[in-house]
């Protein structure tokens, strides 16, 4: 089960909500506001898991997941996409890029925790 989780979310309210939810559940949480920050943070701190938004400035979650998978240092960190994009094509694309889970917004706290526990 993951102990440290990187939350990647450009929306302050969503980022804070996920951070509090996971912290309250006993996880150590770090945050990033976009894919560029997420790549740097993942290489530096090697989190056990990453919860990643898709629609973000600079580098979106799909591109960041692809970059994480392509890097030997970060390729084994499981990524769960957390996004408002709920089309089958988006979910399929996320899986093709190597995401281990997909949560659509709005989500329940239990959806997030069960996905994290399943990693």
Present the secondary structure layout.
Elements lengths: L3 E5 L3 H13 L3 E5 L2 H11 L3 E4 L8 H10 L8 E5 L4 H9 L4 E4 L4 H9 L2
Helix pairs in contact: 2-3
Q: Can you give me a brief rundown of this structure?
A:
The protein is an alpha/beta fold and 119 residues long.
What Rg do the Cα atoms give? 13 Å
Output the strand order for the largest sheet. Answer: 2-1-3-4-5
- The total beta strand count reads 5
Per the CATH scheme, the topology name is Rossmann fold
- The top-level CATH class is Alpha Beta
Number of helices: 5
Helix content: 40-55%
- The first-to-last residue Cα distance is 6 Å
Structure write-up:
With 119 residues, this protein is an alpha/beta fold. The protein has a single domain, classed as Rossmann fold, CATH 3.40.50. The chain contains five helices and five strands, in the order βαβαβαβαβα. Strands 2-1-3-4-5 form a five-stranded parallel β-sheet, sandwiched between helices. The radius of gyration is 13 Å and the shape is globular. The termini are close together. The model has no long low-confidence stretch (mean pLDDT 96).
């Amino acid at each position: 089960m993951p102990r440290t989780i990187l939350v990647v979310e450009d929306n302050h309210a969503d980022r804070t909500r996920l951070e509090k939810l996971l912290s309250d559940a006993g996880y150590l949480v770090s945050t990033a506001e976009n894919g560029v920050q997420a790549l740097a943070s993942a290489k530096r701190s090697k989190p056990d898991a990453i919860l990643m938004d898709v629609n973000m400035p600079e580098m979106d979650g799909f591109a960041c997941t692809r970059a994480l998978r392509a890097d030997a240092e970060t390729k084994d960190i499981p990524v769960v996409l957390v996004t408002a994009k709920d089309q089958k094509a988006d979910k399929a694309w996320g899986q093709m890029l190597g995401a281990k889970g997909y949560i659509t917004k709005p989500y329940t706290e239990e959806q997030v925790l069960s996905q994290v526990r399943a990693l």
